[in-house]
Amino acid sequence: MYQEKAKILWNNQAGNEYYRIGLTCHKGYSGAKPGQFIMLHFPGRMAPFLPRPFSIHRIIKTGGRTAGIELLYKVVGKGTKMLSGHCKGDVVNILGPLGNGFIFSNHYKRIFIVAGGIGVAPMLFLASYLKTKGTNSSECMVFLGGRSKDDLLCSDDFLRMGMKIHITTDDGSAGDQCFVTHPLETALERDRPDIIYACGPLEMLKCVAGISEKHTVPCQVSIETVMACGMGACLGCAVERKEASGNYMHVCFDGPVFDVRCLEL
User: Fold this and answer.
1) How many angstroms separate the CA atoms of 189 and 149, rounded?
2) CA–CA gap between residue 181 and residue 166 (Å, rounded)
3) Which fold has domain 111-262?
4) Which of 16, 79, 84, 245 pairs with 91 at a CA distance of 20 to 30 A?
């Protein structure tokens, strides 16, 4: 874990409300795992009081060495609106990498990746990581969903990796007009995967968890939530543990990636 001042390398719009921002970082981020995150805070008295959590979207390499990290974010409030106004050369404070990432096994050959909206942010890092582990990209299927075509991100990146992709939108403006979990279950019934990895809105994750339980397929989900510290100190990001009522885990410290068998979603 490193606390440092990071210089902005770029901050480019990736859609109507979406941006990709590149940040310098400590070389120790070369050991970051997909699903881990950073806490970002703005310097200055006019900045929001609390830092904001962001999944690591990509590791930036230069000459084979880690030169930075890239984040993918959506403008949804004061903090992200302020971030979207920052330019190359500006400085922000970051703390990371934090949390626990996705767990991979060499026994996983056929892999399903499910991403809803901005939940795609950690999944591109995961896809790249799987390739470095020797996973056959043609055995990976990505289910990408959004409210409309404007909320579909990274499809070209997955395709360039050789992964199959199934697109859905709520309004039918791209792909199939349905929830992303519909083609997921259809594909699962046709050819059972070894593992499902998912990130997106809570209702989507609940449905994915139900599908995985119904078909007894292992599933790991990355939970998106508001955090104040990112290190388990404030206890504000609690999620209920399945096996005992009133027993909680915390997204920042125990997650943000969980085996769905542990969660009461």
Assistant:
1) 27
2) 11
3) Rossmann fold (3.40.50)
4) 16
**CATH number for the segment(s) 2-98:** 2.40.30.10
Q: Both tokens of residue 45?
A: 């008295």
For 218, the token pair is 């292992």
Please give the structure tokens belonging to residue 175: 């792909």
CATH 3.40.50.80 in the chain is located at 111-262
Q: Which of 195, 240, 243, 197 is nearest to 216 (CA)?
A: 195
Give the Cα separation of 72 and 22 in Å (integer): 9
Task: Quote the Cα angle for 111-117-120, to 5°.
Answer: 40
For 53-75, the pLDDT digits (tens) are 999 999 999 988 999 999 999 99
Residue 211: in which H helix or E strand, if any?
A: helix 202-214
Token pair belonging to 249: 């885990």
Tokens 């046709």 appear where?
190
Task: Report the alpha-carbon distance of residue 146 to residue 120 in Å, rounded.
Answer: 10
Q: Please tell me the pTM assigned to this model.
A: 0.95
Token pair of 251, please? Answer: 């997204």
| SS3 of residue 204 by DSSP | helix
Torsional sign, CA 120, 125, 129, 135:
positive
Domain with CATH 2.40.30.10 in the chain: 2-98
What are 198's strand-pairing partners? 114, 221
